[in-house]
């Protein structure tokens, strides 16, 4: 019985990893630390490291006691692991590489504001969206670190007049 | 040699033989590498995963509080605000048997009540950590053992 269970779990693990790779799971290829999945992703989607500069990630990680209104302090070893990974894959190209937005908020970077310029302000406040921090509301594969335009979904409550952001 | 030691020693010997055989096989068939690692990994997860139960954690808080947690008190505590902006239910929902949703980020959270989530409270260190973090969000302090016992008694009793 035990053996059968083990074989089954083994099979499902193999299938799981196969399907994740087939789905081009960015974070698996990047070796996302388990600590990032356990600690950070407990409260928010796994924001891709390249969305902020290394300097911004470092400043954020040195101030986890006041992390957007919550005390997110971690065991030092875990914090080190997470910071090292974020810095390793941080923005490297162009303006993003040195930009330090207010409060190190991704949503305040110039590139984010520009990319989302057609999203009407009421859309961010929809119950189905809640906040600009909820990437998953429109970027259906955000959990896997994928933000392609053709994977966009329209959240519930968007009016026809507000559709522009999803069409171009 | 006591009997218990013999019992523990036996599986080690078996797994050593098992690994040697596997290594021999791997030379012929690289797929076996994956299969063997996978089996070991699965066995490891089974041993390491959690190691406690909601009931055992409740007993622990009961002992520290020196009284049994009361579900009715826990329910009130869970659904009320405590001077701040949020209650526990703001993110975990009420009743917390379905998926919750983070009040700020909108992130989907797995159900907190064991009836809705078999892994809930199966790992003591994890439960301790989130009690510490989330109590600070809701009460601006850590929860007392009695508050934790009450909440856990409520969660365990919450039906699907």
Task: Provide the descriptors you would attach to this structure in a database record.
heterodimer, A: 168 residues, mainly alpha, globular, B: 160 residues, Cytochrome Bc1 Complex, Chain D, domain 2, 2% strand
Question: What does this protein look like?
Answer:
The complex is a heterodimer of chains A (168) and B (160). With 168 residues, chain A is an all-alpha fold. Chain A folds into 2 domains: 31-115, no CATH class; 117-168, no CATH class. Chain A has helices at residues 2-22, 26-29, 34-40, 54-61, 76-88, 110-115, 121-124, 164-167. Chain B folds into 2 domains: 3-48; 54-157, Cytochrome c-like domain (Cytochrome Bc1 Complex, Chain D, domain 2, Orthogonal Bundle). Helices cover 62% and strands 2% of the residues of chain B. Chain B is built from 7 helices and 2 strands. In chain B, strands 1-2 form a two-stranded antiparallel ribbon. Chain B is globular. The relative contact order of chain B is 0.15. At the A-B interface, helix 1 of A face helix 2 and helix 6 of B.
Write the layout of secondary structure elements.
The complex is a heterodimer of chains A (168) and B (160).
Chain A: H1 2-22, H2 26-29, H3 34-40, H4 54-61, H5 76-88, H6 110-115, H7 121-124, H8 164-167
Chain B: H1 3-28, H2 31-48, H3 54-65, H4 71-79, H5 88-92, E1 100-101, E2 108-109, H6 124-139, H7 145-157
Antiparallel strand pairs in B: 1-2
- Top CATH class of the largest domain in chain B: Mainly Alpha
Number of continuous helical runs of chain A: 8
Gap between N and C termini of chain B? 49 Å
How many E-type strands of chain B? 2
> What's the alpha carbon Rg of chain A, rounded to whole Å?
18 Å
H/E element order of chain B: HHHHHEEHH
Please tell me the total number of domains of chain A: 2
Q: Judging from the principal axes of the Cα atoms, what is the shape of chain B?
A: globular
Return the structural class of chain A. Answer: mainly alpha
Average the pLDDT over all residues of chain B and give the rounded result. Answer: 81
- Looking at how many chains there are and whether they match, the oligomeric state comes to heterodimer
Number of helices of chain B: 7
Q: Could you state the order of secondary-structure elements of chain A as H and E?
A: HHHHHHHH
Q: Strands of the largest sheet of chain B, in order across it?
A: 1-2
**What is the total number of structural domains of chain B?**
2
Average pLDDT number of chain A: 88
Strand content of chain B: under 5%
* Low-pLDDT segments, ≥5 res of chain B: 1-19, 33-49
């Amino acid at each position: 019985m035990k053996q059968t269970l083990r074989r089954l779990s083994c099979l499902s693990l193999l299938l799981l990893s196969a399907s994740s790779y087939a789905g081009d799971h960015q974070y698996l290829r990047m070796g996302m630390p388990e600590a990032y999945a356990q600690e950070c992703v407990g409260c928010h989607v796994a924001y891709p490291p390249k969305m902020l500069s290394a300097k911004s990630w470092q400043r954020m990680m040195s101030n986890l006691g006041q992390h957007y209104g919550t005390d997110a302090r971690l065991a030092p070893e875990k914090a080190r692991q997470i910071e090292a990974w974020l810095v390793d894959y941080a923005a490297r190209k162009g303006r993003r590489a040195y930009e330090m937005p207010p409060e190190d908020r991704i949503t305040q970077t110039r590139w984010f504001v520009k990319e989302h310029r057609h999203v009407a302000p009421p859309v961010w406040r929809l119950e189905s969206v809640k906040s600009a921090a909820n990437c998953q509301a429109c970027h259906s594969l955000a959990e896997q670190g994928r933000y392609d335009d053709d994977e966009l979904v329209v959240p519930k409550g968007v009016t026809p007049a507000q559709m522009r952001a999803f069409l171009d | 040699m006591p009997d218990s030691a013999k019992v523990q020693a036996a599986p080690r010997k078996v797994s050593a033989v098992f690994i040697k055989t596997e290594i021999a096989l791997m030379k012929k068939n690289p797929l076996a590498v994956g299969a063997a690692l996978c089996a070991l990994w699965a066995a490891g997860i089974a041993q390491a995963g959690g190691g406690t139960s909601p009931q055992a954690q409740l007993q622990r808080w009961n002992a520290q509080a020196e009284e049994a947690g009361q579900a009715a008190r826990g329910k009130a505590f869970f659904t009320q605000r405590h001077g701040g902006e949020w209650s526990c239910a703001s993110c975990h929902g009420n009743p917390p048997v379905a998926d919750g949703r983070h009040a700020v980020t909108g992130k989907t959270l797995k159900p907190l009540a064991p009836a809705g989530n078999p892994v809930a409270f199966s790992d003591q260190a994890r439960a301790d950590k989130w009690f510490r973090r989330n109590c600070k969000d809701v009460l601006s302090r850590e929860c007392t053992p009695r508050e934790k016992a009450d909440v856990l008694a409520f969660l365990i009793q919450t039906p699907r």
